[in-house]
Amino acid sequence: MDEPKGPGISGYSQAVQNASRSLQHCLERAQEVVPQQQHQETPVYLGATAGMRLLSLDNRHVAMEVLSAVENKLRSSPFNFQGARIITGQEEGAYGWITINYLLGSFKQSGWLNFLPKLTSIKETVGALDLGGASTQITFVPEQEQSESQENSLHFRLYGKSYNVYTHSFLCYGKDQALRMKLVRDLQNAETGRLQDPCFHTGYERNVSIRDLYASPCTANYKQSLAFPQLHVVGSGDYQACQTRIEELFNKTSCPYSKCSFNGIFLPPLQGHFGAFSAFYFVMNFLNLSAESSPAPLNSAISTMKNFCSRPWSEVKAAYPQVKEKYLSEYCFSGTYIISLLKTGYGFSLETWQQIQFLGKIGSSDAGWTLGYMLNLTNMIPAEQSLMRPLSHAGYVGLMVLSSLVLVGALLLGWCIFRKPRCLRKGIV
Ligand SMILES: Nc1ccn([C@@H]2O[C@H](COP(=O)(O)OP(=O)(O)OP(=O)(O)O)[C@@H](O)[C@H]2O)c(=O)n1
Questions:
Q1: Cβ neighbours of 311 (radius 10 Å)
Q2: Whether residue 269 is found in the same domain as residue 135
């Protein structure tokens, strides 16, 4: 879901209109894909994520209005609408983990997919890294079963096996909110409305409304009265300086546990392979750093970013005329943010970076929380493994012959008992 624009009424009605427009588009697409005779029996669920969690924190009433506008639209669709709700960060992490492990076949350990040899050859489950616009999630099965923080642990029983899973969702650490947080921090020392920003290319300029910038619960605490209504951002394209500013977003000063990621949040030692999807993939794929067979090592990812950020905006724009300007202008920030989040935030090293695979799709399905949400709501993942093995062809034929013989025998016996044919009567009487 798109992020809320701001607390002004026009911003909110804009958010409702945007939600309604994207939904209309989704419904039209679904009506094309699902055969018409199956529309009525096709269940539809709607889950909203961190953009709506933030809107709800800021103005619960408006968030409920958005949800009810969406509900009305879905109710009037030809599908079997089952409900709309805002999911928690913990659910978002868990469903992302379920999706990728379901698609990779890790729960059944059958390894039925062979197009991702690196991940499908693994016997254990794969960790999930999800990056959105407003939040980011990390979810994996740690080596140690006992967790130091109950609020980060989940227990699943799937196909007869138990999983103790670690998960955490960082609200405000999606890439759009992280950029806002960086800008308000930069503003703290600003004397004028002009800001030199190393996370944008040289020659790039953007005006940002100060009111919009502070309109999110992620930035509200930094609010200060400024003499200028607009921030004029001017790019200076410097990866190293950009990284230094971004790293200030991760507070590593105190940790009440044996180990933390940042902001005092428990993180057990990283374990196994990870699939990184959503914006992790969009950005790394654009930068050619997501090769499925062997992702670029951390050092080459850093040199790619250094080189990309230093390119003048006019050159970047000319090289990628097909990419939306909003996305293109932010890839320097986003790529740098991804490296900082994984390296400084979660502590991936040169070695463990190699365990990350950036994934857009697995087979033909999107990697993301939505499939896991649907599998859970429709009870499609059993808690216990079925003990019945499917019959072989020979077994099936044998069973059919045996049941036919039993049936014929039963009919004959019935005929003999009720009709008492002469042959039998003679023998019996
Ligand atoms: N081709 C694309 C598509 C999306 N994005 C960006 O990817 C992010 C994630 O978008 P989305 O998957 O829609 O996640 P959200 O719904 O924003 O996730 P959340 O609410 O959990 O933060 C957004 O910053 C969006 O601008 C991108 O860089 N390139």
A1: 16
A2: yes
**What is the phi/psi pair of residue 275, to 5°?**
-105, 125
Structural domain total, the chain: 3
Asked whether 184 lines ligand 1 (CB < 6 A), one says: no
pLDDT score, position 291: 79
Shared-domain flag, residues 139 and 105: yes
Distance, CA 148 to ligand 1 centroid (Å)? 31
How many A from CA of 132 to the centre of ligand 1? 5
Percent of the chain whose pLDDT exceeds 70: 83
| Ligand 1 neighbourhood includes 51 CB (under 6 angstroms) | yes
Residue 215, in any domain of the structure: no
> Residue-wise over 291-310: b if at least 16 C-beta within 10 A, else e?
eeeebbebeebbebbbebbe
Q: Is residue 238 part of a domain?
A: no
- Domain hosting 305: range is 89-174+247-377
For residue 403, how far is its CA from the centre of ligand 1 (angstroms)? Answer: 57
pLDDT at res. 427: 40
Specify the pLDDT at position 6.
Answer: 45
Q: Look at residue 163 and tell me if it is in a domain.
A: yes
Residue 340 near residue 242, CB atoms below 8 Å: no
Closest CA to 166 of 132, 193, 129: 129
Would you say residue 198 lies in a domain? Answer: no
Instruction: Please tell me the predicted confidence (pLDDT) of residue 22.
Output: 86
278 lines ligand 1 (CB under 6 A): yes
Closest atom of ligand 1 to 48 CA is: 20
Q: Let me know whether 357 and 400 are in one domain.
A: no
State the closest ligand 1 atom to the C-alpha of 1, by its place in the atom list counted from 1. Answer: 16
What is the pLDDT, as a whole number, of residue 19? 76
Reported pTM? 0.86
Cβ atoms of 304 and 316 closer than 8 Å: no
Write out the catalytic residue numbers.
92
Distance, CA of 145 to CA of 125 (rounded, Å): 14
Q: Residues at the annotated binding site for ATP?
A: 133-137
Is 135 close to ligand 1, i.e. is its CB under 6 Å away? yes
Residue nearest to atom 3 of ligand 1 (CA): 282
* pLDDT value of residue 390: 46
User: Among the atoms of ligand 1, which is closest to the Cα of residue 331?
Assistant: 28
Provide block-wise average pLDDT over 10 residues at a time, the chain (429 residues). Answer: 45 72 91 96 96 96 92 95 96 97 85 51 86 98 93 93 96 98 93 95 97 95 91 98 98 97 98 97 96 82 98 98 97 98 98 96 96 92 66 55 66 64 43
